[in-house]
Design brief:
Family: Belongs to the azoreductase type 2 family.
Number of strands: 6
Helix content: 40-55%
CATH topology: Rossmann fold
CATH class: Alpha Beta
EC number: 1.-.-.-
Bound molecules: flavin mononucleotide
Largest sheet: 6 strands, parallel
Strand content: 15-25%
Pfam families: FMN_red (PF03358)
Protein name: NADPH-dependent FMN reductase
InterPro entries: Flavoprotein-like_sf (IPR029039), FMN_Rdtase-like_dom (IPR005025), NAD(P)H-dep_reductase (IPR050712)
CATH architecture: 3-Layer(aba) Sandwich
Length: about 180
């Protein structure tokens, strides 16, 4: 199984990127092949439908999404929505790259929960014809600390992340098996 993780914060030490690293480690422990795209390290030009040439960083993003059987998208909650950095990256994608693939949405918020950004993210996934995973992950105020093992310090949060990742992996396995059976 191949999973691509996309970190949508442009902030050094971002909580949403840290939780994505924790998810990467959970996936690695299951021998799942992971590609990590950190948009802070892979800056993309502002999307324009008029652009003629494909920027190499855009090519790398598209390839990482194309080879994936499932995606995990992480965003900071900005003004009740997703970050501009992540939205810009998603504007480069099209249904052909995402259709039928499970997507796990993750947010980090300054308030108690980042539900607005998660709802917006799931709406974008729906419009890219992706399949929203049954659970999502919101890291709100009071849950931004991580242990030396890279996982959330809070036991409850750790359990919620493991549960959401487990359901996402399960869904990806089922859909991938279904696609292979149909070929
Ligand atoms: C421009 C901006 C807008 C924000 N808007 C919200 C918001 O609407 N709701 C909220 O709970 N937190 C908001 N925050 C706080 C961030 O969600 C919080 O700092 C979060 O940890 C950022 O994610 P990151 O650590 O992954 O970069 C905002 C922060 C910034 C810089």
């Amino acid at each position: 199984m191949k999973i691509t993780l996309i970190a949508g914060s442009n902030r050094e030490g971002a909580t949403s990127t840290s939780i994505l690293r924790s998810i990467e480690s959970l996936l690695n422990a299951q021998n799942i092949s992971v590609t990590f795209v950190d948009l802070r390290e892979l800056p993309l030009p502002l999307y324009s439908p008029d652009a003629q040439a494909i920027h190499p960083n855009v090519q790398r993003l598209a390839e990482a999404v194309a080879v994936a059987e499932g995606l995990v998208l992480a965003t900071p909650e900005y003004h009740g929505s997703i970050s501009g950095v992540l939205k810009n990256a998603l504007d480069y994608l099209h249904g052909g790259l995402v259709a039928g693939k499970p997507v796990l949405s993750v947010s980090a918020a300054g308030g108690p929960m980042g539900v607005s950004s998660l709802l917006h993210l799931q709406s974008i996934v729906r419009n890219l014809h992706g399949v929203n995973s049954p659970e999502w992950i919101s890291i709100g105020a009071g849950f931004h600390s991580f242990g030396s093992d890279g996982h959330p310090s809070d036991e409850g949060m750790r359990g919620r992340v493991e549960s959401a990742v487990g359901k996402f992996v399960d869904l990806t396995r089922k859909l991938t098996a279904g696609v292979e059976a149909a070929i």
